[in-house]
Design brief:
It is a single chain. The protein is α+β, with helices and mostly antiparallel strands. It contains 24 helices and ten strands. An eight-stranded mixed beta sheet has the order 1-5-4-3-2-8-7-6. Strands 9-10 form a two-stranded antiparallel sheet. It is elongated and about 130 Å long. The termini are far apart. About 20% of the residues are buried. This is Exocyst complex component 8.
Length: about 725
Amino acid sequence: MAMAMSDSGASRLRRQLESGSFEARLYVKQLSQQSDGDRDLQEHRQRIQALAEETAQNLKRNVYQNYRQFIETAREISYLESEMYQLSHLLTEQKSNLESIPLTLLPAAAAAGAAAASGGEEGGGGAGGRDHLRGQAGFFPSPGGSSRDSSGPGEEGKQRTLTTLLEKVEGCRHLLETPGQYLVYNGDLVEYEADHMAQLQRVHGFLMNDCLLVATWLPQRRGMYRYNALYPLDGLAVVNVKDNPPMKDMFKLLMFPESRIFQAENAKIKREWLEVLEETKRALSEKRRREQEEAAAPRGPPQVTSKASNPFEDEDDEEPAVPEAEEEKVDLSMEWIQELPEDLDVCIAQRDFEGAVDLLDKLNQYLEDKPSPPAVKELRARVDERVRQLTEVLVFELSPDRSLRGGPKATRRAVSQLIRLGQCTKACELFLRNRAAAVHTAIRQLRIEGATLLYIHKLCHVFFTSLLETAREFEADFAGTDGGCYSAFVVWARSALGTFAAAFSKQVFDSKESLSTAAECVKVAKEHCQQLGDIGLDLTFIIHTLLVKDIQGALHSYKEIIIEATKHRNSEEMWRRMNLMTPEALGKLKEEMKSCGVRNFEQYTGDDCWVNLSYTVVAFTKQTMGFLEEALKLYFPELHMVLLESLVEIILVAVQHVDYSLRCEQDPEKKAFIRQNASFLYETVLPVVEKRFEEGVGKPAKQLQDLRNASRLIRVNPESTTSVV
């Protein structure tokens, strides 16, 4: 009774949990209110856990049952597919046989019927007429010709058996196109390695009247095989292998320059293989010999049909000759043409795009120089519908909705088949659209690092590597097309660089990085862009065009920072010599000035750690030369005037301050010190700036020459004591 109550409680709990209005939070709240303590909650928890485990077991059991049913269903579908192939081939064969009955039999049969009727009237019975007709039928030519006579009445059955068996072998449909070929013997074999006698694989042998087909087993598809090899009998030698237990019931096939060893199921089957192979080879040799003798025998003169063979035929009743062009017809009765639409459907369903396009090429080559009667137009209409379906599938393969993994090579299959279908423009458009989505996704998924330069290195590597791979794949896929596709690629590359420049500017310029960091980042981008020159693609000018506005803004911003700092130092200028306190500090300053290009800084140093220059002038020199060095890393022709004007503005601030101080200072000692600083600016700093600018740009700057040659840049009122800065 307790067990019954437990089962009823579990079922009630299950129904409660499975109800559509179940809310976990409300259920736990009610359970907490109704429970007497922790023990009740633990028991309820155990019941829920047991119910969960039971549900999981039921789910696993259902999944296993469904999986078994799925496997059985797939196996039945495979069998049904094979049977449908066989049925389709049998129907096609029957149709071909019916269509091959000569139309000449109809008037001959009518004439024989009339003769039988007259003979019956004269002979007084119908049986004699029927016997006469049966005897006359033997004189009509059979559709099969001499091969039918030589093969006997069982050839059609043998051909049908061959067709049925070979339908189960993948990749050997070309064998069905050989006329007069039929199956002689077949059976299972096991192949062994010739050197070490190790078992290799299970195979199935099909012995035809002129060749031997070897097919391997497909374990996942019962009763199906895959084509392995085909050996003509006239170049095949059979050798019996002596039994050496456990190696027994074996025979060897010799095909120059290779050999293969097979094991039969038992000694009887081995003996049958050896006998039937020898007999078939002998029959083939005899057949070839007869054919050669018949070909060498002289032929009689051709029979000429006289127009006067019927003296009762009226010349007026003769039908006018039909022109040969009108009599020309297109033979569409071949098996591969009849099955072409269905084969295309199978190829599309199995994603065998190459096979589908191969079939279309074969049809186009066959119908290339032939007329277009209604039958051909109907066939083309059916095929065009499959071409449309194939194109849609290929377009979907290249759509950005598909997986973008695998790089540009993953699109080669669909692109090449679209090009073969004459859809070169569409293939180019879809390929570039797919790669644009891939580039955008790669940039978006790139992790933003704390260090800007590290992120830019990763960004450039990802983008330019992808661009280089896309360019190489594009060149490989569209090498044989017109030049319009290459123009489309250049336009696409310009658009892709726009995406890259947007991500680059957002990280470098929008975050207000220092000019030195921005210069290093731009340098990295230029170096990666120059790698595209290896494939003949130069996009450096596009990078310049996309980044020129941001670089101009960075130069202007840093120029303003230098000017403000210089003005601040000028406002606190006391015109005193610098005391660096320690020799190490003095040596460090000398190295800094040497790196700035000031080679004669020694003459401005005094005793101990003194420097005969103002702190303001020294700081201005280091800051100006640093700005020039970083700006030259960013330089390209579009920035020439921006950089030059920024330098002139920065230098003017220092020169105007020195000029104003000379005019206002009354102390002779300080005035001499100011003149020494002015001499350092005009005779040392400005020539270094001018020389470094010319080295970085490649041409001198007239504005800097004029600035250096002028003794005073700005004329002020001698009586004025106010600064013009």
